[in-house]
Give the backbone structure.
Amino acid sequence: MRLGLSSKTKQTDGWMAIRLAEDNIYAAHVRRAPSSRAEVTLAVAYSGITREVVLEKLAKECHADRYSCTTLLMPAEYQILSVDAPTVPPEELKTAIRWRLKDMLDFHVDDAMIDVLDIPPNQNAPVRNRAMYAIAARTISVEQCQTMFRQAKIPLSVIDIPEMAQRNIAAMLEPQGRGIALLSFDTEGGLLTFTASGELYLSRRIDVTLAQLTHGDAVQKRAFHDRVTLELQRSLDHFDRQYHYVTLAKLVLAPTGIDNTDLRAYLAENLQLAVEILDLESVFDFTHTPELKHPVQQQHYFLTLGAALRHQEKVL
């Protein structure tokens, strides 16, 4: 999702991502390096009575006006749908997509802001209609977000979505010529993404929250492990049918804040795919933010760091 907004040129390289989570507001600044791990120069969390007050405090204490800033929409604020790309000139693409979405959204298409994202085709297959993702965000949600950041004097440049933030981290983990599946959990539930060559091919939401996965007795945990496994099996089967030309190397589990070796072992036993647990220190340099070496903090900042890892992308 690339809802680009106008802003002045910033003094500091890299992106500051500010994520409005249920428990806190998380902010992180990441400076990418072409031949080494991305450097995290800042990671802070704020809580307070209202988001407006918290954002104002963050803006002042972190000098947000020195950065190019991005934030993430909440899952309830947008929909991401796969559609066939219409054969129209580029300047007419979003209008054509909007027409196709009018009966697919759970809100009126006139109340939506539309963006599009290409899905890479099979280069060895005959030319045919290519698929793409249409991302439809509720206009009122985007406008409220813009207003809140503007009033806090935070120069918001981009509003993104969690799928793309997770894609950014997955791109750093892919073996040459192969793709990976990456699975994360938070208070909103599970997010599964399939990527290859730094591109997002497929995403799925899993209706299991972090609390359900990490709390409760052995019987309850086993039930949620079963649910996650079933959703993964279905998603892997769908991916194999739809994108058989992409070879998956592994499934990577994002930090959950606790020892998740039991989940890794359960998935490895029931899936025909290698399963690994991610330590974000393999992707990021935490020299300036050593607190992020802890698994709990890695879970808290996972999507924030992914959002800050973004490249500047061309809008379709």
